[in-house]
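Translate structure to sequence.
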């Protein structure tokens, strides 16, 4: 009778060792891939938040129009200031973490209607973007009522706990401003900047 061949203990231990080594290599590769995915995902989230905030501000600032008013329009910056929608930053304060400008009030700004008064306060509103705690907020002040209503405050973006958003604005000319948004979460930081031309100058 012929003996059947069996696996020796040395062969069994070698096979277990090789399969264990292969399993450890697969596990290490998966951990590395997961770490990379988490890192890229965090950077993308930070960049997406910064781009979103910048886009909202840029789209609205382009619609700004000058308002000749000593209290809420461009004359409050200085008597020699030329027509501009940009109130902050301005030629005397060229850098700021607050963006303020005047824009047409969509309900009352109707320049083609009869009896149009281009200086009427009701035709304009002041828009301000700033940081409030962890939030980027947009405040809108209208001038169509006496006394005026309190500003409408809208949260544009909220940072997660442990994250921050910073705004920086630079005055370049009466019709141009540089906007910068820096978003940070953990070790991930993204700064997005652009120059915005104010069409309604």
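Result:
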């Amino acid at each position: 009778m012929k003996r059947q061949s069996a696996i020796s203990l040395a062969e069994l231990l070698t096979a277990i060792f090789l399969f264990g080594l292969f399993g450890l290599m697969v596990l290490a590769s998966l951990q590395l891939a997961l770490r990379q995915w988490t890192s890229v995902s965090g950077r993308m989230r930070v960049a997406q938040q910064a781009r979103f905030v910048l886009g909202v501000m840029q789209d609205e600032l382009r619609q700004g129009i000058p308002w000749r008013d000593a209290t809420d329009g461009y004359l409050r910056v200085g008597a020699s200031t030329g027509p501009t929608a940009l109130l902050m930053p301005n030629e005397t304060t060229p850098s700021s973490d607050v963006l303020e400008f005047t824009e047409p009030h969509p309900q009352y700004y109707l320049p083609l209607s009869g009896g149009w008064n281009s200086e009427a306060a009701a035709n304009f509103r002041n828009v301000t973007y700033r940081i409030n705690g962890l939030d980027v907020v947009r405040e809108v002040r209208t001038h169509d009522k006496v006394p005026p209503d309190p500003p409408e405050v809208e949260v544009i973006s909220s940072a997660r706990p442990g994250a921050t958003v910073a705004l920086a604005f630079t005055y370049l000319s009466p019709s141009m401003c540089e906007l910068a948004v820096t978003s940070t979460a953990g070790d991930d930081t993204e700064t997005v900047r652009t120059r915005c031309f104010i069409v309604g100058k």
